[in-house]
Amino acid sequence: MPQWDLANADAILVMGSNMAENHPIAFRFVLQAKEKGATIIHADPRFTRTSALSDMHAPLRAGSDIAFLGGIIRHILENDLWFKNYVLGYTNISTIIDERFQDTSELDGLFSGWNEEKQTYQYESWQYKDMHVPASLAEHFVNTTESFSDCTKRLKKGPTPKDLTLQHPNCVYQILKRHYAAYTPEMVERTTGCPKETFLKVADALVRASGPDKTAAICYAVGWTHHSTGVQMIRAAAIIQLLLGNIGRPGGGILALRGHSSIQGSTDIPTLYNMLPGYLPQPHAFKPHGTLKDFFGVEETPTGWWSNFPKYMISLMKAWYGDNAVKENDWGYDFLPKIVGDHSQQPLTLAIRDGLVKGLFLLGQNPAVGASNSALVQRSLANLDWMVVRDFTETETASFWHKGRPVRDGELTPQNIKTEVFLMPGSLAGEKAGTFTNTHRLVQWHDKVVDGPGDSRSELWFIHHLGRRLKELYQDSADPKDKPIRSLTWNYPVKGEKEDPDVEAVLKEINGYTVADGKQISDPKYLQDDGSTACGCWIYCGVFPEEGHNQARSRRPDGPDGPGTHLGWGFAWPANRRTLYNRASADLQGKPWSEKKTLVWWNAEKGHWEGKDNVDFSQEKPPDYRPEWSQEPSGMDALGGDDPFIMIADGRGALYVPSGLKDGPLPTHYEPVESPVRNPLYGQQHNPAVKIWQRSDNPLHAPGDPRYPHALTTYRLTEHHSGGTPTRSVATTAELQPEGFCEIPPELAGELGIRTLDWVVLSTPRGDIETKAIVTERLQPFQLNGQSVFQIGLPWHFGWRGYATGDIANVLTAIVGDPNTSMHENKALTCGLRKGRLNRPAQGD
Amino acid sequence: MGVPARALDYADSFLPGVIPQEAELTAGVRIEPGKSYGFFTDTTLCIGCKACEVACKEWNALPADDLGLKGTSYDNTGSLSANTWRHVAFVEKISGDEGTRVTEMQPFQSNWLMMSDVCKHCHNAPCLEACPTGALFRTEFDTVVVQPDICNGCGYCVPACPFGVVDLSPDDGKAHKCTLCYDRLKGGLEPACAKSCPTDSIQFGEVPDLVERAKARVVDLHAKGARNAYLYGAPDTPGATGGLGHLNAFFLLTDRPEVYNLPTAPTRAANRVEPALTAGLVTMAGLALTAAAVFALAKAGPTGPGRNGEIR
Hints:
The structure holds 2 protein chains of 2 kinds.
Chain A: E1 11-15, H1 19-22, H2 24-35, E2 39-44, H3 49-52, E3 56-59, H4 65-78, H5 84-90, E4 114-115, E5 120-121, H6 148-153, H7 172-180, H8 185-192, H9 196-208, E6 216-220, H10 222-225, H11 230-243, E7 253-256, H12 263-268, E8 275-276, E9 280-281, H13 292-299, H14 309-321, H15 345-353, E10 359-363, H16 367-370, H17 374-381, E11 386-391, H18 400-403, H19 405-408, E12 420-425, E13 434-437, E14 442-446, H20 459-474, H21 483-487, E15 494-495, E16 500-501, H22 503-511, E17 513-514, E18 533-534, E19 571-572, E20 600-603, E21 608-611, E22 691-692, E23 710-715, H23 725-728, H24 731-734, E24 741-744, H25 746-752, E25 759-764, E26 767-775, E27 781-784, E28 787-795, E29 816-817, E30 829-835
Parallel strand pairs in A: 1-2, 1-6, 2-3, 6-7, 10-11, 11-12, 23-28, 24-26
Antiparallel strand pairs in A: 4-5, 8-9, 13-14, 14-19, 15-16, 17-18, 20-21, 22-29, 23-30, 25-26, 25-30, 27-28
Helix pairs in contact in A: 4-8, 4-9, 4-11, 8-9, 15-17
Chain B: H1 23-26, E1 37-42, H2 51-59, E2 87-92, E3 112-117, H3 126-130, E4 136-138, E5 144-146, H4 157-160, E6 167-168, E7 175-176, H5 182-186, H6 192-196, E8 202-206, H7 207-224, E9 230-232, E10 249-253, H8 273-299
Parallel strand pairs in B: 1-10
Antiparallel strand pairs in B: 1-8, 2-3, 4-5, 6-7, 9-10
């Protein structure tokens, strides 16, 4: 949802986010909602600047979010508070699940299909009865005895099996009720530490702000994603919002508050190892992806919008390989690298440590500060042959070889570190043109203001000239493995003395063009799978719709009397649609659910959808359209006129997710990998599918280890940007938070005799750090099942460089990962705490 | 605030230069000499992000003060000074009796108070009255500015200020304080702190408009349940006392002024001249009388050695 749409919400739950501090601009719209009378709720382990501006603060122990959210789901179901017409019409609540499915309530915390030996799930029993519904994005592949594509093709033969009376014991409604039956307010209090009265007030506030006349929004950020159950926390929010009818509607939805420096853009055109631009799956060497036909056979979704996947894939390869992509060579499919496993940041670090990776480019990244288990990271860097760091100052990562922790501790010396470090000056935002893609998928152009100092260059300059030189080096090679580089189109025009690539030329290629005449394409619906179109990222198609028209440059607000969707301001993917799934803002017949909450509607006279936003649906499909199953319809033809969730194969909002997730179809409370307590809900302690790398340089401890009794969470302060490099290196921003510190509740400080500004030592099995104490009531003890657990807070973005210094918090954290994303769990771990300092030599500039 | 109509005149990111009267787009106000401008700082909207402090230092090219963790909540700036013209104070009031943390709060900011302090640009400015060189003057925008090339560093303005705003710089020995971005106002630009404030806690405009807006805000807050909201420094409110008239930079607060380190009843130094002069004259007269009496006694003859035998 657009940030500015928050102003239309009747309640806003901020959870897994310290929004006022880390998204202050978006938070202005929260305050606008408050002006109009909305209820603002902050559920968080700490009382933060966000809490101070809220109507309610629900404290909960870090990592217990699913217990809290599951409690809300139970509250809605048990008290029959869900939005009946919306949920029955638009979600899979009535869909019947395979009879082999067994729930965590039956198996003490495991779902059916657990393979103990492989430590993974097999997903057959999670499927819809008699059919496979593939996930919308990548990771479709399931190990089954028959071909996966054959399974999914059954979707074209008839509607999914449903029981609209919701009585079938294996319909999603009944499964949901059973799954969350144990998540009572009392259990929520015992698990999260949040008093049940407070919890119930939060649940009640959300319910009261939902329905035909009202909508509630949920905002989250890395406070949810940085967990071993991060994806399932977001899923739990999705279930709540679907049950309350808050998706696709004005003022409703889930706002993923994306991070600094165009993080949204860096997943759209990804720095992620397993995706190609526009969320297309990366070919995998160990899946049946041998040929393009095989790849499409496994990854293509036969019904719904994603059936267009081949058009986007082939257009992408045409953009990358130009005339070298022809039908005969599968449009250059073999030029694409195939992945062989998890190549994300954490396993990459281990691969460097183990000598598998010899060289490293770091562009705008500072893993010595920002990555888990910093001591291991620094030892890994010492194992490289070479490392290129591009930044605007010497970061901790660039200086690890003379200032780093292993050097300070005498474990390594600069003389015996063989890594050759190249520090190359990078330009800052104002010193280069380009785009930012923000939280709302809004692409906004910015011009270059000044030349960067000295030899600094933009990222684009660096990559362009690196690519150009590589192509020159390989141009005469006959080796087949060099063909991908030789086949790459790399003809961006350059200008000026420094030969800066034309940034708009790159954006035009991302937008896409017809191959024959090079004309810009205005909408992804014109992309083809016959090689006649080229497009660098299908969801950005329309950002540069015609020659001379850079829509990302547009800054045209609606004005005081306009619809408030601001369609003339920048470009929101896809196709400049501001609210995804906005077909759901109208009822099944196509009329807005109420006069107070209008977005798009069906105009029967004109025979098309219209409204304040571009409709995220087939423009001319009437609400009463039904698929003609005898024709085995595919693509959008297989979705009815009242199936709003067009990216999902059955067009229905997924209360229950049959495939695409590795740790279960429903969110389940598991303790963090390192927790102060046993799981009160199940025998299964932590997420069974969690990624754990057991090694001596990444030790973990058992639950309730008395050496590490306190709950610890790490976070960023508003005063520092990214890993702190931009703000710690400037005195006038460094002075705002000039030193590292940890925050301790007075109850714990009293026990240990700690006062504000005393030195304290924090320790985990990975290492220990010293820092100064801030004793504050903003932190508090939690009563968990009769046991008192203290929550400690620790900002993570300090290091030894710049004016604002402090020990690196990530020395304490572990390399563990969410099974779906490989994301670390640095928001919830445990630690020991004592007053005093470490006995060690001084470190710093 | 709605979208100003003129925003549509600048609908792409190509700009010809500085937008004429840009403040009309960003703050909804034209900046013209002869009118009275100021700040309305609404603490109930402040999220303590310190963007105002950063924007101020950046625009005015002010150096950092001493770097160090102060341990006073999230405030590491401490106070307004020669180099810090915006300062965000933080006051934690998280728990009630018996250490139980608050979970339900009044609307908008509460329990962790944050307030962006600044020079008040007093209607009757004591610093200006104290300045013997004319370095401090009232501008055509009804703001109070120090001209460093005229300031001789005498420091009379420092104790004259009832808010502790004006400060002598250790670098050049001269007085420095907020200029309400005098240079920006001349160019039609909103002051840097107000423009950078993401939540409109700092609002810039013509003082009469701001006062009207602020009064409406207090009424609205009372209706929403924040019954402790009041104005400080607007005409006829606390802060606008002691002959100061009113403060062009005034505040909306929800706790007693001294909680935010503001004086409960600030006074103009000149107000103290008359009583001080009277007191001085009375003292002089008294001393004269005493002296006369002593001399009269002395004339009456010696009275022997002192109590401790010292020579008189």
